[in-house]
Amino acid sequence: MIHMNKLWKKFGRHEAVRDLSFSVPEGSAFALIGANGAGKTTTIKVLMNILEPTRGKAEVLGIDSRRISPRELCQIGYVSENQDMPEKLTVEEFLAYLRPFYPTWDTELEESILNQLRLPLERKICDLSHGMRMKMSLACALPFRPKLLVLDEPFSGLDPLVRDEFMEGLLQQAGEMTILISSHELSEIDGVATYVAFLDEGRLLFEESMSDLVARFREVRVTLERNGSQDRDELVAAPFPKCWLRVRSVGNVLTFVDTQFSEGHVGERLRALVGNVRTVDAQPMALRSIFTTLARAAREGVLP
Amino acid sequence: MKLATNMIWHICRKDMRLLWPFVLGAAGIQFTSAGLRYAMDHGGESEALLNVFNLLQVGTLLVSALLIATVVHQDPIPGVRQDWLVRPIGRRDLMLAKVLFVLLMVHGPILLADTMQGLLSGFPVLQSVTAAASHSLYLLLGLSFPVLAFTSMTRNMAESVIGAVLCSLGFVVFQVLINNRRQFETVAGTGLFWIGESTMFAAALVGSSAVLAIQYFRRKTVPARWLTAVVAFLFLLGYNVPWHFAFALQQRLSPNPGAGSDITAKFDPSGSKFRLPEGMNHNTVLVARGLTRDEASTIYLPIRIAGIPESTVLNADRAVVLLTTKDGRMVYQARADDLLVRKDGNLPPVSFNIGLRPIGWREIGPADMAVPKNLVPGSGEALVYQGLSLPRNLYERIKDQPLHLEIIYSLTLLSSNSYKIPALGGDMLIPAVGRCRTQMDDDGDDVQLRCIQAGGESNCVAAFLEHAPSGRRNPISFSCWPNYSPYSAQYTPDSLTRSRGSLRFRDLSGLAKYPVDGSRLPESRVVLRIYQPEEHFTRRLVIPEIHLSDWESLEHDRAVASR
């Protein structure tokens, strides 16, 4: 559905996106994660042919993003927190304006979405709150049953109630469509995304399915048999594998995040590195914890 | 195709829905202005009305430009946040929708108001519509299209206004630089200005099209801005199109080639020194717009012009003088006075002008000058004086040196057609000047002549009062601002061209008496001579050796003394 190949985007000397390559499988809900300024919005704007790549290539629906025409845009829904819309039109007028551009526009679906999102049709766009605007933006992106739905920071600034309404509206219509969603807030994509790509300062740190990601990250707590200060020094200086992050030792307790966790493998490696191990406790991590661990590791330059 | 047309109309309708109050306001200003002009044309014209009208004129153009900018900014091109970028809206459709809006909502009211004015002024439908369409096309090329392209490179009105101010400043600086260096080489201020104007419009059309294409199809604002700078430069070069190129083109367009083939111009050293007519002096004769020239370094060369046909005007569109020393070194090259020679009917004397049109000039008529004895009446010969004003320092340095002098004349022969209209209450449709009316002025000393034309523009007009039974005539009132343009157009106020004149028949002080006075007016008529170009040609006048000081005017000593 989407394929990025060695994509670069520069603004003057600033490299907003660097050597970005990833693919979004058809039917997936692909989350583009990263802190503010990581290059998520720039990547999406290149995909939508709003910006031209400096180098490399992005393909959407099998077409080079630079050649996206109205024919492709008929199949792409786009929702962004930073979308300038005709402020003086009412919601109803704006929908009426959009309808003729989409041959597959389903007015019944439009009606059902409007009912679900409870939008004030007669109100001018400039008079809508931020949450209402986002809901309206979604209401404009779904009635033509897009093959691809692009959501750029859709939850930014939304209160929980509106966010839930938005998500409900989205998930009910999702069906077979492919969703690309960017966010800096992991909790927002938890339960929605099936794939995730993590961007940091324009670079892709990793891209994989959500299930694999959650499966390979564990917060490990190890209790050792010995407890001398000399032993502790040895412990800290031990050559831990690079896939162990945030290694800490307090007394005879060693904690770290294993980014390549596999059952049984940790114990063996620990014994080889630090000798007798009393207990090993490996807990699954929340997405937010995985995200912060990776972000810190990226900043410290110790990312595996 | 039908779908594309539907989409263009659909986008245009959206803009109309959003901007209808603005459209109504702009149309309101347009119609108010047209109504006011109509009232002034057909009723009284007070200073207050004229001030309001002038304000509305500026307002019409300004509001049109603002409306165009606003419609473009409904879907701006620069930027990354516009909703239309992610919609299946064809870029060609979007661009054409904006053009359609400009045509319908900006030019529609202008066209309608112009046509109504033409019809109400008594012109036929076809002439009214043609003149209105011509005016609208002129505005489209000279204002709307460039504004459309310019604003497509800006995000909002503030950017547009700042950009426009910067461009205007650049234009002024460029003009000042060019004018200081090459004023005598360009068509500015002459009848050939239309060639420069057409070049400018061609540059504007091509440039605007290219900018619109780059913006709407490629969204490359930075290259578009660079292109605009290049186009603006070409536009300004068009304004300063070289004289020789322009006149060569004008010559090819002569309506009656060969009409001026008998005309010759020769230096006549037997002519006496030039003397300003009684009552004029060097301080007052050429003063206009706050500018004067130094008569103490001005010479007047007697030129014998032969072969001038009856009732014609010979206009020197440009006279360039070249002065070289005996060893071939050029010491001076500049414009000489704008010489204009007018032969009135088959009467022997002719009138000519001294001075420069943009600065100020003065007609020297038969009453002012003694007719040279060796001229044969009716032969088409005339002794006129070619004024040549030099910088004082240069003049003092070279005035007593033997010099080679050459004047290259770019000339136009204009022939006339005469029309007669009753001196009081006359109302007549005259080709080239349109519908003309005559009436007595409020003071009771002038017959006022007012003409309105839908479209065309006249070049030179002579008018005088003639008593029909006796054939008595009052002095001629002559006005000549050549414009050889094959099309008629102006930015403001509308598609109608207005001309007016006053013909005096009574001196309120009682000092002068006129052959056609108030008592004869009911039996008198206004005779109008409308001059139109026949041929454009060049003549070269060479004086192998001359001492400039020999041709100082008789007022020269007074001018020197008064320094």
Instruction: Give the percentage of residues in beta strands of chain B.
Output: 15-25%
Q: What would you call the structural class of chain A?
A: alpha/beta
* Gyration radius over CA of chain B: 27 Å
Considering DSSP H and I runs of 4 or more, what fraction of the residues of chain B is helical?
25-40%
Q: What do we call the CATH topology of the largest domain in chain A?
A: Rossmann fold
Distance from first to last alpha carbon of chain B: 77 Å
Output the structural class of chain B.
Answer: alpha+beta
- Secondary-structure element order of chain B, N to C: HHHHHHHHEEEEEEEEHEEEEEEEEH
Order of helices and strands of chain A: EEEHEEHEHHHEHEHEEHEHEEHEH
Secondary structure blueprint with pairings:
The complex is a heterodimer of chains A (304) and B (563).
Chain A: E1 2-11, E2 14-24, E3 29-33, H1 40-47, E4 55-60, E5 63-64, H2 70-73, E6 76-80, H3 91-98, H4 107-117, H5 130-141, E7 148-152, H6 160-174, E8 178-183, H7 186-189, E9 195-200, E10 203-209, H8 210-216, E11 218-224, H9 229-237, E12 244-250, E13 253-258, H10 265-274, E14 277-284, H11 287-300
Parallel strand pairs in A: 3-8, 3-9, 6-7, 7-8
Antiparallel strand pairs in A: 1-2, 1-4, 4-5, 9-10, 11-13, 11-14, 12-13
Helix pairs in contact in A: 4-5, 5-6
Chain B: H1 2-42, H2 47-73, H3 91-120, H4 125-151, H5 157-182, H6 193-218, H7 221-239, H8 243-252, E1 264-267, E2 298-306, E3 312-324, E4 330-335, E5 340-343, E6 350-356, E7 360-364, E8 382-389, H9 392-398, E9 403-422, E10 427-430, E11 434-440, E12 446-454, E13 460-467, E14 477-480, E15 496-504, E16 524-546, H10 556-561
Antiparallel strand pairs in B: 1-2, 2-8, 3-4, 3-5, 3-9, 5-6, 6-7, 9-16, 10-11, 11-12, 12-15, 13-14, 13-16
Helix pairs in contact in B: 1-2, 1-3, 2-3, 2-4, 3-4, 4-6, 6-7
Describe, in plain words, how this protein is organized in 3D:
The complex is a heterodimer of chains A (304) and B (563). In chain A, α6 (160-174) links the parallel β7 and β8 (178-183). In chain A, α4 (107-117) runs antiparallel to α5 (130-141) and α5 runs parallel beside α6. The model of chain A has no long low-confidence stretch (mean pLDDT 85). Chain A has eleven helices and 14 strands. The radius of gyration of chain A is 23 Å and the shape is elongated. Chain A folds into two domains: 2-213, P-loop containing nucleotide triphosphate hydrolases (Rossmann fold, 3-Layer(aba) Sandwich); 218-284, Alpha-Beta Plaits (2-Layer Sandwich). Chain A has helices at 40-47, 70-73, 91-98, 107-117, 130-141, 160-174, 186-189, 210-216, 229-237, 265-274, 287-300, and strands at 2-11, 14-24, 29-33, 55-60, 63-64, 76-80, 148-152, 178-183, 195-200, 203-209, 218-224, 244-250, 253-258, 277-284. With 304 residues, chain A is of the alpha/beta class. In chain A, the strands form three sheets. Chain A has a six-stranded mixed sheet, sandwiched between helices. In chain A, strands 2-1-4-5 form a four-stranded antiparallel sheet, covered by helices on one side. A four-stranded antiparallel sheet of chain A has the order 12-13-11-14. Chain B has 563 residues and is of the alpha+beta class. Chain B has four domains: 2-152, no CATH class; 181-252, no CATH class; 264-413 and 537-561, no CATH class; 416-534, Immunoglobulin-like (Sandwich). Chain B has helices at 2-42, 47-73, 91-120, 125-151, 157-182, 193-218, 221-239, 243-252, 392-398, 556-561; strands at 264-267, 298-306, 312-324, 330-335, 340-343, 350-356, 360-364, 382-389, 403-422, 427-430, 434-440, 446-454, 460-467, 477-480, 496-504, 524-546. In chain B, the strands form three sheets. In chain B, strands 3, 4, 5, 6, 7, 9, 13, 14 and 16 form a nine-stranded antiparallel sheet that branches. A four-stranded antiparallel sheet of chain B has the order 10-11-12-15. The longest helix of chain B is centred in the first third of the chain and has 41 residues, at 2-42. The interface between A and B is medium-sized, with 25 and 18 residues.
